[in-house]
């Protein structure tokens, strides 16, 4: 057997258990292959590539060449009567056959109302049945779903809708303190005077319709109007369209803030999200508790797409995040079959741990955690206090659809507490020296780069930022500092950028800084993240005021309210006379962060 074929043979032998495919660095394999290589004239690098920080998720299982709707159709054929989604707060239960019927009606209705393949449709709101309904209806109609954070204020939603030229927006009238329809009227006062479905706005020239999911509003369509709009010819048009859709078509735009302060629209294809969900892999007869938001990839891909690909049941405890509702959804038998998997960020699991409950009462065996760095103590308590013996950590980014590293339920404690698992199938990762771009030795921290079927098309209509994020060889620069061990497991060491992760929300200081500069009393401002036991990090603003001015924390926070998302509003505000500087005059944010944490006693 040729040495090159031997390497492939070893990989295929271990394909039944993904981590073992990465274990060529184990001593006995290294020695064996090293001997074979030199006896056959094979270069040393072919055998000992695992001594550098590079991993490749090989697999004998091919990628799925399917669209989102093809995956759902296949699952409906297999399990038409199995529950697909359960929304406990709203009392909604749909099996797969019922869900598909609703999807087809809405998709045909969107076509009837003038939307076409490639148009953009924004969904702006919390976790409701309509969110996941329009997720799959838009995919079936070839329409690109734009995921909008329900915490967006008018300025932010105006920017995102204009950036991607949204033709329609779906939203509830209001949720908690958010008045969605009022904000849209603020942006587009023409809504009240235009014929329904024919908005002509000077500020959003591409917007044609607003679809409300609850009470009817003047100048806006209702979900029922969309359902009723589709006639038999539109359903035929929808069926004919399925043969024209390509799995490489863009299907979702997820906004992520940029270091320049402007949100960037990460554009994902059918191929991206279908295969990300497919290779995440789940056991049969799974019911997943989904408290994470659908506007994030965690909810829409690992939740929604997992449902469509694997036939799992999604249980949504509440419209908004509610830790008590999460516990009831997991434990209370009156809701039917118990959940055996729960998703969450470290903050969500921290909140659930606060509630005193006997570990024997927990039915979940697996907690899947991601969204922000997790303290090892939280993982340990999930295993001991919550009886989630198969707790698993993951790592991903919106730009990578999102999953790139995933742990295994049977991993030992050391791996669970200190790593985010190993590389996903059909995905490559390498760790490089940020200064030279060269791959570093195993165990050495550096910048983490990802390549594979998971990497986004790019940032919508922004080639400059796309080229900054993805090099010519299609490696995506995560901006995170990481290291790889000899087993191929990844440890996230920190972040190369200044991003703050507060309770799973990615916050870039530049966006807040630019806004605070508009305050008439502010001369200069720097924003850093400081440690927080519950949320992971909190936003801390360090402000240098203009000469002769005075201000207070309350004044700064009040200035932010209603102008930027609530989670971006600084929790701490300090007024300073100067900032620590480098010799070249650049602000040393790491030193500033340390000073603030020391001042706060963190």
UniProtKB/TrEMBL annotation:
One of its GO terms (molecular function) is medium-chain fatty acid-CoA ligase activity. Belongs to the ATP-dependent AMP-binding enzyme family. It comes from Dicentrarchus labrax (European seabass). Residues 73-460 form the AMP-dependent synthetase/ligase domain. Residues 511-586 form the AMP-binding enzyme C-terminal domain. It is an enzyme of class 6 (ligase). The gene is LOC127356503. It catalyses: octanoate + ATP + CoA = octanoyl-CoA + AMP + diphosphate; a medium-chain fatty acid + ATP + CoA = a medium-chain fatty acyl-CoA + AMP + diphosphate. This is Medium-chain acyl-CoA ligase ACSF2, mitochondrial. It holds the Pfam family AMP-binding. Its EC number is 6.2.1.2. Keywords: Ligase, Lipid metabolism, Membrane, Transmembrane, Transmembrane helix. PROSITE patterns: AMP_BINDING. The chain crosses the membrane at residues 24-42. Acyl-CoA synthases catalyze the initial reaction in fatty acid metabolism, by forming a thioester with CoA. Has some preference toward medium-chain substrates. Plays a role in adipocyte differentiation. GO terms for biological process: fatty acid metabolic process. InterPro entries: AMP-bd_C, AMP-bd_C_sf, AMP-binding_CS, AMP-dep_synth/lig_dom, ANL_N_sf. The keyword Chaperone does not apply.
